[in-house]
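Incident log, support desk, overnight shift.

02:14 A customer reports that sequence design results differ from what the structure should imply. Their input is reproduced verbatim below. On-call engineer (initials T.W.) acknowledged and began investigating.
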């Protein structure tokens, strides 16, 4: 596997470990606690990430299929373009710029940790599977549409970079929630580690 895909795979594994630490010992109340009106709970952040990834997969899968059909292959190394690197930098935590989520990606409140966390882990495995499928494809030349604006096209390299930065962003936000003074106390929450 080319270096860039290997790095994304390693980032995905780190995200899985960070999510496990973040969710460790949370009660239902803590998982669903919101810092205030219009602000998401940890549960909602996880659900939002699950939904976002599924939107991404539609474009990624179509791009992989086209690349194989047209034999758009390359061995790398592949480098992010100026705009792609800039966008990823904006998405990365700590948050510098707030962005409104599309309505379709706004999660409902009151989620079950026992349902949401396994879904998140399965989604990470689905990302890894798509990274495997991309091996051998020219990651800069093959384009995918933005899941949120079909007229915006980006390379597969940029697409995966944004997706993983977006996951780190929401895990960071969720970790910040756990540190808030008003965060509900609970004996089971004390085992949680830093994301």
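02:41 Re-run completed on a clean worker. Output:
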């Amino acid at each position: 596997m080319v270096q860039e895909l290997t790095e994304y795979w390693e980032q995905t594994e780190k995200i899985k470990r960070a999510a496990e630490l973040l969710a460790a010992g949370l009660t239902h109340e803590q998982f669903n606690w919101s810092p205030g009106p219009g602000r998401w709970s940890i549960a909602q952040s996880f659900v939002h990430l699950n939904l976002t990834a599924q939107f991404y997969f539609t474009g990624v899968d179509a791009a992989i299929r086209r690349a194989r059909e047209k034999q758009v292959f390359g061995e790398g190394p592949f480098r992010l373009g100026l705009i792609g690197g800039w966008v990823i930098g904006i998405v990365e935590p700590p948050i510098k710029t707030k962005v409104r989520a599309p309505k379709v990606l706004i999660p409902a409140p009151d989620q079950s940790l026992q349902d949401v966390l396994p879904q998140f882990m399965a989604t990470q495995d689905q990302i890894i599977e798509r990274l495997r499928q991309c091996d051998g494809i020219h990651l800069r030349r093959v384009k995918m549409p933005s899941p949120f604006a079909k007229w915006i096209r980006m390379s597969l390299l940029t697409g995966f970079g944004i997706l993983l930065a977006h996951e780190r962003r929401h895990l960071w936000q969720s970790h910040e929630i756990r540190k808030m003074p008003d965060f509900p106390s609970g004996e089971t929450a004390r085992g949680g580690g830093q994301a």
